[in-house]
Amino acid sequence: MTKSYKLKLISGGASSSGKTSFLHGTLKNETPIGVSFMPIECFVNEGDSYKFILWDLKSKERFKFLFPTFCRGASAALLFFDVSNYNSFEELNYWINIFRKNTGKIPIILIGTNLDFNSREVFDEDIEKFIEKYHLDGLFFTSIQEEEDNTQKEAIFKYLVEKLDPTHEIFEFSVFFSNQMEDEHLENFLSFFSICPICKKENHFDYLKSFFLSKNSDLIKLRERLLKLVEESKCFNKRYYNNITLGIPCCQCYKNIFGKS
Q1: Are residues 165 and 200 both part of a single domain?
Q2: Are residues 229 and 135 in the same domain?
Q3: Is the dihedral of CA 182, 183, 186, 192 positive or negative?
Q4: N or C: which end of the chain has fewer CB within 10 A?
Q5: Do 16 and 83 meet the contact criterion of CB atoms below 8 Å apart?
Q6: Which range of residues forms the domain containing residue 83?
Q7: pTM score
């Protein structure tokens, strides 16, 4: 049976720390009270999901009295700084104190951005001392080039899931950001295969998204064939179209047919 978790994730850092750039664009549901929200879904193995709601705290003085409330209930935290801006690194002390005071012992992952900049101001020795002082749970670096794809993001969130659920052995992993929901291929896929062709009940979107985003080579080939077939089906002669059923079985029908979950 697949597992599904919903978790609160907080992020902090100086306004020049590169948080927004790392997350690819504007965060959703921005509010006037110093926090923005962004859903991030991680799919593990054959359909298990970890749904994070990211609370991104804004580094503005007038909002700081609200930060203790925003932190409560968080399962983990991301802490950002710009390796080419020492001031952003110094501000980490403030964020660590806020997080630890209001969340307890949760995993905190440190992320250094703009690693490919020539004018580096924060060096490994300072970072190592900081991690040792505050007993942080992980360190990652990103560059402008790496932010153009999901490779480093997947590594960070895979590590985060492993920290939160160390008993869950991971064979396949993919991460799905809210800005990817605008992907035309994904929207068409979810719409076309939303109904099980056998029982006519609605398919679970998590099930479909997990399939669509899978890194399994066989499933990738199958997905590409299905997308191609969807396009070709638009040109089917009406005389034959009604005799052809395209679809993906729901979890229960798949189990009934193949005898596995």
Answers
A1: no
A2: no
A3: positive
A4: N
A5: no
A6: 4-176
A7: 0.73
